[in-house]
């Protein structure tokens, strides 16, 4: 439960930062060009808001747990006081004159932005006056255009208002990457320093890799870290891998054309990892390890007399012996000893291990403040390019099954709060949010950009009715994708 809460809090905080700054990008450019912003909300607020605030007559008025203000419109009535409807039976609405509203009614001050925090932490919104967006405010759009509305501005002003959110998200990613590099540097384990070799997933083994191999190159290009290797074989589609087997034997492995699809079908998220010894860091109280007398510093080398030199081999052996009594052989102060213990039903002894980096020499690059800025820009751009390359996998049969929602995003965060990982993940999500929002889908920023480019090229502005239909279609598409992605998460949670 604790792990779930930590992941959830990290997810909410990360998305809150990203959504707030994304919407602020729209707000900034709207106000720069003197376009009215009706509402700016962090999180969504169906029925009511946790907090809403508005500056009225020079003073801030704040309301807590306030129900949503009814729309600034009313049904038209005939001379007999009966509400009128159109041919389809829908009420005919008209704006409420401002002079009929009381002085404490917020609707009387539309020139002032309403700020708020909703209760549904799934995003946020910035409602710009005179713009066809998710609010579908048809009453305002039915009135003659006003000078302070989005629709009254020339294309060269509307375009930055639309792309402001995407621009801020991408700049934010580069800034975060720069500050992460400045604060913590960049550290990784080169393949050549993994003296116990690498651990490969079942699909990798099926195609010729052996546990303990060291990767040398891909298509003749040297690779020295995991991220580069995975990108080359999964995203770039490179097929020829050279590995070092044992101390001196070099082996060429040819991967099939559909290798990426096989990996997706097998749902193997960790293709390779570093093999490392099983050395006890801490013995947990009340566990089989404590009862057997294991101590900090003990180095386990065999289970039931079967030699296992690394943690991965020991873990696999224990998995087959869950709930049973086993003989554990280990070195203590250079002396080989054996103890018997009863494994738990989930094949655990009850120990934590020394951190992996204690065994290997890593490479670390430190950055000064002014060095970190171009490095952060470069890392942000590389991340965007890599994600764009990965995106093509979504349109494959197996790739579509891996599309996930909030659950999948939450799993990307660590089990414990680590600020370096948190900010790195936030930067990655900022890149993803920028890219996804720029897709040419109505209801997304990219859809609005598409229509603006059409207007710039043809000199003709799309009709407002057409834009309304496009917005509705886009929202339905996005809702379908949201249901599909989170449905995948639910299916995996309960049926896999």
Describe the structure.
The protein is α+β, with helices and mostly antiparallel strands. The chain folds into four domains: 34-141, no CATH class; 175-188 and 370-432, no CATH class; 191-273, PDZ domain (Pdz3 Domain, Roll); 278-358, Roll (Pdz3 Domain), CATH 2.30.42.10. Helix content is 41%, strand content 22%. It is built from 14 helices and 21 strands. The protein has helices spanning 2-32, 138-142, 155-184, 202-206, 226-235, 259-266, 288-292, 311-319, 369-391, 397-401, 406-411, 419-437, 445-458, 464-495, and strands spanning 37-44, 48-56, 59-67, 73-75, 93-95, 114-117, 120-128, 186-188, 198-200, 214-218, 221-222, 240-245, 249-254, 272-274, 278-283, 299-303, 306-307, 325-332, 335-342, 351-353, 363-365. The strands form six sheets. Strands 15, 16, 17, 18, 19 and 20 form a six-stranded antiparallel β-sheet that branches. Strand 18 and strand 19 form a beta hairpin. The longest helix has 32 residues, at 464-495. The protein is elongated, with a radius of gyration of 29 Å. The two termini are 20 Å apart. The model has no long low-confidence stretch (mean pLDDT 85).
């Amino acid at each position: 439960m604790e792990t779930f809460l930590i992941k959830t809090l990290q997810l909410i905080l990360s998305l809150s930062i990203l959504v707030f700054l994304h919407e602020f990008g729209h707000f900034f450019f709207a106000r720069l060009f003197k376009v009215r912003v009706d509402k700016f909300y962090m999180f969504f607020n169906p029925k009511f808001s946790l907090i809403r605030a508005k500056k009225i007559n020079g003073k801030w008025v704040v309301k807590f747990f306030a129900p949503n203000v009814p729309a600034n419109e009313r049904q038209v009535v005939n001379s007999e006081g009966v509400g009128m409807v159109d041919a389809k039976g829908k009420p005919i609405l008209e704006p409420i004159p401002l002079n009929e509203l009381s002085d404490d009614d917020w609707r009387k001050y539309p020139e002032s932005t309403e700020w708020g925090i909703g209760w549904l932490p799934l995003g946020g919104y910035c409602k710009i006056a005179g713009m066809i967006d998710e609010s579908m405010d048809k009453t305002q759009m039915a009135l003659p255009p006003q000078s302070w509305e989005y629709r009254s501005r020339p294309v060269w002003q509307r375009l930055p208002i639309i792309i402001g959110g995407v621009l801020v998200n991408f700049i934010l990613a580069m800034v975060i990457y720069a500050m992460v590099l400045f604060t913590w540097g960049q550290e990784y384990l080169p393949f050549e320093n993994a003296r116990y070799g690498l651990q490969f997933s079942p699909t990798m083994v099926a195609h010729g890799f052996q546990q303990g191999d060291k990767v040398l190159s891909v298509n003749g290009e040297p690779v020295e870290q995991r991220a580069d290797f995975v990108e080359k074989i999964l995203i770039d589609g490179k097929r020829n891998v050279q590995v070092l087997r044992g101390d001196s034997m070099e082996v060429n492995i040819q991967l099939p054309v559909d290798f990426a699809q096989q990996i997706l079908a097998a749902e193997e998220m960790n293709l390779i990892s570093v093999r490392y010894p099983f050395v006890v860091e801490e013995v947990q109280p009340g566990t089989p390890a404590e009862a057997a007398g294991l101590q900090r510093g003990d180095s386990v080398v065999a289970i039931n007399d079967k030699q296992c030199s690394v943690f991965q081999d020991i873990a696999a052996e224990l998995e087959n012996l869950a709930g049973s009594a086993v003989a554990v052989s280990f070195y203590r102060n250079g002396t080989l000893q054996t103890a018997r213990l009863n494994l738990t039903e989930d094949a655990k002894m009850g120990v934590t291990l020394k951190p992996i980096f204690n065994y290997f020499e890593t490479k670390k690059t430190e950055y000064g403040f002014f060095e970190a800025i171009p490095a952060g820009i470069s890392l942000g751009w590389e991340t965007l390019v890599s994600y764009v390359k990965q995106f093509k996998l979504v349109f494959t049969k197996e790739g579509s099954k891996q599309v996930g929602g909030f659950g999948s995003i939450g799993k990307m965060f660590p089990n414990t709060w680590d600020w370096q990982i948190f900010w790195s993940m936030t930067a990655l999500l900022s890149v993803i949010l920028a890219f996804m929002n720029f897709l040419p889908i109505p209801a997304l920023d990219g859809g609005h950009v598409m229509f603006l480019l059409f207007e710039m090229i043809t000199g003709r502005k799309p009709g407002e009715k057409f834009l309304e239909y496009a917005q509705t279609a886009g929202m339905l598409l996005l809702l379908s994708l949201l249901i599909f992605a989170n449905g995948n998460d639910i299916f995996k949670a309960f049926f896999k």
